[in-house]
Amino acid sequence: MAVTAGLIGGLCPPPPRPPGRPPRRAPPRPRPKLAACRRGAGSRTLGTVAPETTAVESPPPGPDERSPRRSSRRAARFRGPLLAFLITSAAFCTAWVARGTFPFGTTGRAINDQANQYVPFHRALWDLVHGQAAGDLLFTWRGGFGQQFLSDYYTYLGNPFSWLAVLVPRAHVDLAVFAITPITMGAAAAVMTVYLGKLHAGPWWQRGVLGATYGLCGWALSDASYIPMWLWGLVALPMLGIAVEWCLEQRRWPGVALLVALAWFGNFYTAMMATMAACVLLAIRLVALDMTGAQRLRALWRAATATATGILLTLPLLLPSFLSSGAAQPTQAGAFDPVRIELFLAGMLPATHLWGGRPRLYVASLGLILAGSFLLNTRIAKKTRLVWAAATVLVLASFQFPPTQYVWHGLAVPNGNPYREAFVFSGMVVIVAWLALANRPRPLHLALVAALLVLATFVLRRANDFGGWTWPAVLGGGAASVLALVLLALGEKRRRLVPIAAALMIGVVFAESTVAAYNADVRRARERWAKPVATSNRTITEHFDAVRRVDGWPAYRTDSGAPQTSYNDALTLRSEGPQYYSSYLPEATYQALEPLGYGYKNDGRTFFGADNPVLDAIFSIGARVRPGTAPDTWEGSTFPAPPLVTVRSAPYASPNPADSVWARQENVLGATVYQVPEVTRGRSATEQTYAAQCTPGSEAFWYSPALHGTLAAGGTERPLEDLMTGVTPLGPVPASGRLDVTVRTQTKDATAGTHPLGCLNRSALDTRVRHLTTTGATSIDISGHGIEATLPHGTTGTAVLAMTNVPGWQCSAPIRDFHGLISLDLPAGTTKLSCTFTPKGLLPGLAGAGLALLTLVSVTIAARRRRT
Fold it and tell me: What is the pTM of this model?
């Protein structure tokens, strides 16, 4: 108990008592003074020498004196963050209006993963909250024939503002997802404004303007504006900066832990980067401030323990996600290749947007000019200037050095833009800019920095794709910024100039950031991967309604069909097909679906549907939706399908060629239903021809994952997109029995393989489906993350569940792998079986979070008892 009391006492020392108020008991042990850590410490915050002031013992003000002051201070406390929020969100939305982007025009808003992942996952969240999901927080039966959902929730839905999506009608969830971007950016600007005030006192509107330059940094506008969960990292950085200040002040240890937890609950990926940046900020402050060695050790101890506690609170989400990532289908991410130095530096120029995976490091010219004047400002202590400048340069250099890049990204190679931590540098630039502004930079220094900015722009003007709005931002925005700062300096004697300077500073940040956001949107849309697509229209609504009309879950699954609205149509349209796109899609799912002829993308982390009756029978698909004859219409059809749980009496081996997709399907189905003919091939420069003989009246199917081009057969043409195209129907075999297929392709040295054709005997398939239905489960009970099946009396053999053998399933009997599916041996007399899904790491994560919560509550209670 003594050790515990000592620990708690070290984390939560008692606060000083107000002047003039006698202690109720013996006075507590005084805390070492740290004037530089207190708000409003003036130049002392920067490590400069300031005369000590002595508190004058006087009675506290009466209620009439105290209330107006408190209300005035409280109002001023919110004005700066509110101003930052309004500038940031308004500038970003104005760029939408200028671009004519939905909902302010007809130009699509959803690009890349925003359409394929984020909007569908937010629709899944809507379904979950409104009780219309097939699954729960741990598992979803929609997509991938059943997949974990907890890690997807943590990764794609962790931003607290994502819950705005559940407050609107489901048809407008995409609008809520779009609104998350300006709201989160505005929140980041507001929190940065608060943090700047803790670093140094100053006018609220100046902090608000610089807070907005952070919320509108290049990373936010160019890289993360369509990624709602990453944007939470923009909030996490200043939030953790506030936590650092509390550690230095030796107060609010529980608050520090909660801020860390809030940062990590939002998104662990960018929170990890923000936490590393907070470590840099803590190191800077420990060096720059006048502190004793004991004070530094206490600050470090408080920061370390609070950070560990905060991260442990997120362990029920963090640990399952970490383990799910390890079990996910691997990707072929390339090694980090730093960009050329001129491109790297060009990314720091205002309103730039270079092609591809280039760093977007810029902030508005006002922030850049102020940051440049920081080293020249002699009102700031030399030690402080050197420490902040050196740390900022080292952080920037770490982005180009492969080992430190891997550290920033959690020792992993980013699959995409490798400069995902760029917001850290932008945040440090804004901090330095504020310290310069709070210490009244000289107009001559500002003019010199502005001239250097123009010179740098001229030197870097030939960088790849340089242009657009960079020159207007540098010249126009830079000139307006210098003018505003000069007027602000003159306003010390002529107060009427201050409102003009304020209006000019707000206007230049707003206008320049609007232009930067517009430029980023226009240039990014030129890249093939970023072509905007619709996430709500008449076709999507009709598609959704058609799926609902034939829904029969859990008696059978419904496949939403093709063409797809997104890579996650199962979530978007509430179907149960194979369509699924997630960074956590298990390797086990890939190993089960790829051999059977399902198309895929992204190294196997995205799966598509396949219009094939054998696959439908294997995975209990009893309904399918196809485009109708009229434009923008969809029609659904139902057909017999086995239940989700079937029984096999003995292993089956197909007589067809073992290396063909047709034999692998038959092995899982348990019957011979295909005729696999010998194929005669021909080839020219641009065409490949294939001829075969099949039983007239059978149904022909094609599979060629190595070819990209156009397939022509039976008078119709179909696109071939190599791995993305799974088993494809060609139609009935004509009376002659001859099949002729032509593939027009530019793919070099690739063919359709040895056995691209399979001819299905529909009668044999129907017989097998009836047998599986008769001997399979008589009833299926589906819970959020579990399944229970009732079997006919006297059932023996092996029960096969129509879901992939992903990690986390526990069943009433030991699980055996059946061609990638889950199977259970059935002892004689078995009439029921059940399985429950629990994400790996959930229980240890709950235990760790419980321990952290106990520590947090204990420290809070002990601190309250010490105060009273």
Answer: 0.89
